[in-house]
Amino acid sequence: MCHHVVVNRCKLVAVLITCFGSSTGAEHTGPAYAAEHQARPAHRYVEMEEVVIVIQSQRNSHHASRGCQMKVEIHQEAARLGQGVPVVALVHELSDYEGDWSILPVLPRLTASYGQSASWFLFIEEGTTVTLPALLQVLHRFPIQEEWFLGKRLHDNEASIIHHYAFSEDPSSFGYPDPAAGWALSAPLLHRLSERIQHESLKSDFTIDLKHEIALYIWEEGNGPELTAVPEFCTELKDNCATTFTTYLYDCGDPVSKSDVFVAVKTCQRFHSERGHCGKTFAILRRFLSKAVPKADWLLIVDDDTLISLPRLRRLLHCYDPKEAVILGERYGYGLVQNGYSYITGGGGMVLSRVAVSRLLSSNCSCYSDDAPDDMVLGRCFTSLGVPITHSPLFHQAQPDDYSELLLSSQQGISFHKYWNIDPVAVYRRWLQDTNSRDEL
Length: 441
Fold this sequence. Notes:
- The protein is α/β, with parallel strands linked by helices.
- 31% of the residues lie in helices and 16% in strands.
- It is globular.
- The two termini are 41 Å apart.
């Protein structure tokens, strides 16, 4: 496992620090408070051992390897600096529960494991680079006995369906973190959230857009802290950055060939002999494995109003092992705090390896009705089979206007969904088409 490699290379040091009681979030819930206190020095300097860096790793072999390598690199940098070693935790190693990616179920475990020695918890993506000295300088500005929620601030320009039209009168008034730049919680805040999640039910069973929902949960309708924008939490490289980000579309080599991807489009009853979302999808799965179609490593299932960049998808797929059971796309969750399951949302496109399809059809999992939501049925089935649901934020269930423009501009998106009130050709050209378009089809 990854942590054995790190322990062999770097000796981890734990320092016991005074445990401060959590403050009430109502003391600093507005931008004025954050602006007034952001430059106020802490009573003492934060040590490297007091920082817990949580990498949003995944169980799929490609992502687990990337997360492991990131952990090793952070500890190697710390060893070169000789100023102590931070704790680095991989989300997929914290427990066997698939729903840990939604963060809230993880908080009690983080408190139990590191609550007595940590002052800060930094959550980053696999592709986020952390500059440790700059990070400590940032954290030193914020008194560690208080509740802080730090990050690069994103906001909605328009009321968004994926955020349930929250703050519709002024969408830009609410800020949420860009996960690629990382976001941090002070220990008092994390401790209070940990207690709260164990004794309070969530308002919704669904996890749709994690970054926005985490910010809402922390804000607690004005009773908790708002996100404090930190300019040193970056996605693009610039001076004085504590974090930077590379890409979600990794360069793993040449794209997979066109013949290795079988594309299936679900459409309405007028054009389709099967009935219902789930009925159509399982018919597609059976046909994919039949001798009636050319054999391919990958199956892509999309709706008839899904926009997809096949060249970018083929580049992404080269990162994954087709001999592994893979289901890939935009990950949603249902009942994750209560041991629920994850699933790939259908509108953004679902990608399955041949191995995954074979395992599914060999099991007893099936539609409980033809009209059942196919993406949720597949998620429940793969969870029961122990097949991890693999997330890529490059797939999108909604239209571009439903996402932060700042967020999209840093991505190389693979898909968007729903045609109403938009020009799909214009959307494709702006957000999905590469400069060299000769290989689009």
